[in-house]
Amino acid sequence: xxxxxxxxxxxxxxxxxxxxxxxxxxxxxxxxxxxxxxxxxxxxxxxxxxxxxxxxxxxxxxxxxxxxxxxxxxxxxxxxxxxxxxxxxxxxxxxxxxxxxxxxxxxxxxxxxxxxxxxxxxxxxxxxxxxxxxxxxxxxxxxxxxxxxxxxxxxxxxxxxxxxxxxxxxxxxxxxxxxxxxxxxxxxxxxxxxxxxxxxxxxxxxxxxxxxxxxxxxxxxxxxxxxxxxxxxxxxxxxxxxxxxxxxxxxxxxxxxxxxxxxxxxxxxxxxxxxxxxxxxxxxxxxxxxxxxxxxxxxxxxxxxxxxxxxxxxxxxxxxxxxxxxxxxxxxxxxxxxxxxxxxxxxxxxxxxxxxxxxxxxxxxxxxxxxxxxxxxxxxxxxxxxxxxxxxxxxxxxxxxxxxxxxxxxxxxxxxxxxxxxxxxxxxxxxxxxxxxxxxxxxxxxxxxxxxxxxxxxxxxxxxxxxxxxxxxxxxxxxxxxxxxxxxxxxxxxxxxxxxxxxxxxxxxxxxxxxxxxxxxxxxxxxxxxxxxxxxxxxxxxxxxxxxxxxxxxxxxxxxxxxxxxxxxxxxxxxxxxxxxxxxxxxxxxxxxxxxxxxxxxxxxxxxxxxxxxxxxxxxxxxxxxxxxxxxxxxxxxxxxxxxxxxxxxxxxxxxxxxxxxxxxxxxxxxxxxxxxxxxxxxxxxxxxxxxxxxxx
Length: 697
Hints:
By secondary structure, the protein is of the alpha/beta class. Among the domains are: 81-250, Alpha-Beta Barrel (TIM Barrel); 448-683, Rossmann fold, CATH 3.40.50.150. 42% of the residues are buried.
């Protein structure tokens, strides 16, 4: 969470919602645990209309309750079958009624005239009736004579007559007993009244009791409720002589306690009787209070303050609307501009009720997945640097950047080790970005993947070879390695399981199923521990990790001690290959350091270049070995023969001619790397290893 907050801090329009999948799954299981066997759950879409969340419910077998054409279309688009969609509203116009019938969606009728319209459009159809259980039930705005919704008991004779005229079959009754009902007795009183009225419907198959459950689980005993409602329905079904289906329609109780709303403090005012804390937000963005005068609980996130305000605190929006209060009368620690406020119980009737009034930018919504990563599930608006937000930008050298225009954010989250993004770029398609930097883009990842594997693998000696891939989460390097028949075993050591999961889901074209290959063993571990503890020896180690920048987890993986440990687990004829970063007149420092480190550790080193266009610069790759391999001297014919005899599958880049060109480094590159570099056999110089193994990078 801290990483997500740091990314949004100071942006302007910094407010956002974040949902917790663990809490959502807990609520899903709670409702699924009702023991009554003929039971359905239909989530009330008015509470939250985020498609990602709706698809989670659909995948768990839930139905959905809608009251508009827009939400009916949304439900169908999210995969809900028509028979699992219940449409109930008031004053449904004829075009909408026709559309409901055409789509095969269930409908609950609210009035006599609505029933006549339905009968005219769909004679012989099946429907439900929305009941108003009148003044005998607990009095609130949802029931009784003051309510505008539903059919009164006194209107039922005419309802039955209209149904008979149009040969309609009334198979369901539908009620809504209130909102945030905490009294089990009050709720059951309404249930009993509903069942009593439902006795008047001869063809009854279903009773829909709506929702009304509170967000705060501590205020309502759902375990007791589900057992009582099950007993009631078993008794009722027995009395009716057939199983009557029970439907519940949770709204706020499904997501309400599963989300928070975050916003930054932008100003503090002191008044004689209170403190005003102003936020980069507005009540229009978390508007329950504007409708219900019911404020969300608020706390200062990760407050380090030891002082508390002696006066009550009101949280207000950054508008001129006099009633823009987001919370009132709070007891809070002293805050500073830039602190984050966290609003609890923000998962239902919050984002879905946002109003354009006051002109605030729509906030984004994130989902914290079960593995702790954060995924952007609905993009927000921003009126700050909007063009910049549609591009990625990487610095190649001082004063020089390389950018990609982004068409779509497919995934944005964070794991324990990285900020993870799957982005669709306009030019290069879908790709993986770690900590804001390109790792692979689909249209030219083959250049990188083939380059780090084939030039060295083709020159190794022997059969039944054993390979170790360090990192390599996306799988391109392993995909290429598996094309060589000579490799019998491949171990992948990847510290971040989130990368493997993410790329398996979103980038299957890169991995091409290597996870299921019997030759591959995937180990989730850090390479420092693995290299120290393994008893295996490897013919080929591929260092396929992110750049060792100062703020990157990879910064600790290019030390002399670790590279020496990896050298020690190589076979006598083995080699360790790594990319060394960009190489050019203005961007060679990292490549020079890695090249020097390899020359310091290994008796023999060789270097070659590749040119992945999506990176915006040429890249250097360095191979270190315990024995002389002579990779640069392999002929075009020898490589072509090797590929024909030992490689299965097509290669887009690599062949004999490409191999020779890769090792033919330009003069300026040779000069950057080593002033005495010459392109003859004598260039493969034997180096003495420093036994002190000092840290180098």
